[in-house]
Amino acid sequence: KIDDDDDDDDISSHAFSGIRGLPGLEFRINSKGFLYASLLAGPIIDDEIRRIKLMPSKQCFQQFNGCIEISNLIISRYQCPQLVSLYPAPPNRLIFTIQNLDLEIRGNINGEIGVILPINLNNTVYTRFHQVSATVQLTVHRKLNGSPYVRVIGCYVSVGFSDVFLHDGDLLGDIFNFHFRGKAADQIRKQLPIRVCKMIRNMIEKRINVPLYTISKAIPLQKLSNIAKKLLIASGWLIYQDM
């Protein structure tokens, strides 16, 4: 970003009005541009998903006269999605899709259940999500100062299947895996779409809207003109003349 005050002198104030016919810049993104954006989005998605944290899950069972809680849920394994894509769709929308990623989440399980005698739970539990996909609808708007911003108008996340299991070969592991894994998996599974959509909204705000807000003030028109001139000279379309 350019901080010199003098650099703003060659920027027309009309460039921020967004009125057709007045000074400004127009960008057109073709199919290759969307393909390039999709390639850039892949590593960003991988980085953001690894930071997802789920809320603790607690369930009480009358038949066992006790409760269990799964907490400290973090991503322990992650398989990249098979496809990340961004493409335009009518009317004036962008569709962002993530297809078929796998997650394994590790957490701590604590509690007490009554099976003949009270049994204390203090172990590690694993949750696996397979074939997770997300479809996000985006629209592009303009702020009062003329800078564009992207808004999420729809987010849908699907999970192919999920499972929770306790790595313990004794009686405790058998009891949990037989009686509790289904309900625990359902509770954690309900959280995943909410967390993924929140992650995508935060990512768009941080990675797209913030740069879009500053880009018009960060690149003066004179500098854009010089860049365009150098590109034309390099391509042979313009012969450089030293005045």
TrEMBL record:
<dbReference type="InterPro" id="IPR017942">
    <property type="entry name" value="Lipid-bd_serum_glycop_N"/>
</dbReference>
<feature type="domain" description="Lipid-binding serum glycoprotein N-terminal">
    <location>
        <begin position="28"/>
        <end position="243"/>
    </location>
</feature>
<protein>
    <recommendedName>
        <fullName>Lipid-binding serum glycoprotein N-terminal domain-containing protein</fullName>
    </recommendedName>
</protein>
<dbReference type="InterPro" id="IPR017943">
    <property type="entry name" value="Bactericidal_perm-incr_a/b_dom"/>
</dbReference>
<dbReference type="GO" id="GO:0005615">
    <property type="term" value="C:extracellular space"/>
</dbReference>
<dbReference type="InterPro" id="IPR032942">
    <property type="entry name" value="BPI/LBP/Plunc"/>
</dbReference>
<dbReference type="GO" id="GO:0008289">
    <property type="term" value="F:lipid binding"/>
</dbReference>
<dbReference type="Pfam" id="PF01273">
    <property type="entry name" value="LBP_BPI_CETP"/>
</dbReference>
